[in-house]
Amino acid sequence: xxxxxxxxLVFIFGVIIGSFLNVCIYRLPRNLSIVRPPSxxxxxxxxxxxxxxxxxxxxxxxxxxxxxCGGAISIRYLAIEFMTGVFFVMLLWLFGLSxxxxxxxxxxxxxxxxxxxxxxxxxxxxxxxxGGLVAGLAISFFRxxxxxxxxxxxxxxxxxxxxxxxFFYELLRKREGMGGGDIKLLGMIGAFCGIQGVIFTLIAGxxxxxxxxxxxxxxKQEGMTYALPFGPFLSFGAFVYIIxxxxxxxxLNGFLGGG
Length: 259
Ligand SMILES: [Zn+2]
Known about the structure:
By secondary structure, the chain is mainly α. The chain has 2 domains: 96 residues, no CATH class; 162 residues. Helix content is 69%, strand content 0%. The chain has 8 helices and no strands. α7 packs across α8. The structure holds zinc ion. The site of zinc ion (ZN) has 8 residues, from loops.
């Protein structure tokens, strides 16, 4: 089921999808169409030839430079293609060739696009978060061990908890703390991962955020007002939940004596 050939094929598939995710990351926040026109060089605007548009290989062959103008092409393109391939292979090894695999490929793709857009622009386009939320609800009808009720409860908790935190933060500090985009993102995560996934994601994401954010805060010497985009951390938390959530939650329950 998860032999060498499926692994290679799923990796190649992931790399091709990663190449498309790069297009979405570049174009969605700039309000450009993701279908047309074909990719062009970010420096000189020349269209990229088909033979120069092979994921990973073209980047390595051209040493990360545009064939026309020699302008540097961000290593992020290569990293995202490779990362998507690796993540898809991890999902294959966990879920085998199943409907769950296809669903989580879609979910992880959304998380990757959201994370990189949020990192660069500190926004999360609604088409991804709200669109993903609706897709997660619809897809729940096709999942063997996760139903529409699980999805709805996840959305309510995900959207609700963060909304409440943001509401009280604003009340106390008279300043917006958590963006509406994060709230919609956690709602989307709830639609795919349910209540348990939302709680796990929030804890893991906050922990990671603190781990990265606290040193940054000291470095910036600007007190606690420095806003770090929270989307990448929530996405990371959700990914860890898909990959290792069940055993981690079971181990924690055992540890706490819940059995
Ligand atoms: Zn160029």
